[in-house]
Amino acid sequence: MENTAYTTEAERVIAAYGTMVYRVCYVRLAPVDPTLADDAYQNVFLTWVEHPPRVQPGSEHEKAWFLRCAVHRCADLYRSRRRHPMEELPETVPCPPEDTTEVMDALLSLPEKYRMPLYLHGVWGFSIRETAAALGMNEAALRMRLTRARRALAEILEYDLKGGAYENRKERRSDP
After folding, report:
1. DSSP line for the chain
2. For 40-84, how does the pLDDT look when each residue is reduced to its tens digit (9 = 90+)?
3. What are the angstrom distances between the C-alpha of 137 and each of 20, 85, 113, 130, 141?
């Protein structure tokens, strides 16, 4: 017989953290292989089932646990993929998240050390302290990475950080 308390708790956790976990996994792993994001997502919630965190449900600590777990599972899959390359098989390409735009494509083209801090702090709105803790770095290093990441993103998008002018690269290149 199905345990309704467990089902309700699982639904609460997935509703509360599912989108955040998937997007963190996607941003971390999409440049390598977008299908790995699905595996990492599942591994995070499997870890939650096998080893639930000892924190109050719905607290900021629980949110931080899911974020940190997602970062770790992504690192595990990335490391495993590099150590044991897989043969490519023809398959359909999964749909990217709905918010894939030119800015998101530019963000995904950044190196990993810039992509994750900018995504967590800039897109998800985590504080400097929360982002630094999730990525396992100190706050000063995170601030420097965010500055460099913003510059790199602005360069890709040809956005003037001081004046705020934005020029679409494609439009600019099509002009004679």
Report:
1. ---HHHHHHHHHHHHHHHHHHHHHHHHHHTTT-THHHHHHHHHHHHHHHHS--SS-TTSHHHHHHHHHHHHHHHHHHHHHHHHS-------PPPPPPTT--HHHHHHHHS-HHHHHHHIIIIIS---HHHHHHHHT--HHHHHHHHHHHHHHHHHHHTB-TTT--B--HHHHHH--
2. 999 999 999 888 888 888 788 899 999 999 999 998 888 887 777
3. 20, 29, 11, 10, 7
The residues, ordered by sequence, that sit 6+ positions from 172 with a Cβ below 8 Å of its Cβ are 158
b/e per residue, 85-110, with b = 16+ CB within 10 A? eeeeeeeeeeeeeeeeeeebebbbeb
pLDDT value, residue 58: 78
Please give the structure tokens belonging to residue 24.
């963190």
pLDDT above 60 for 90:
no
Domains of the chain: 1-84 (1.10.1740), 98-176 (1.10.10.10)
The CA-atom distances, in angstroms, between 4 and each of 9, 15, 64, 121 are 8, 16, 26, 36
Over range 13-18, report the average pLDDT: 90
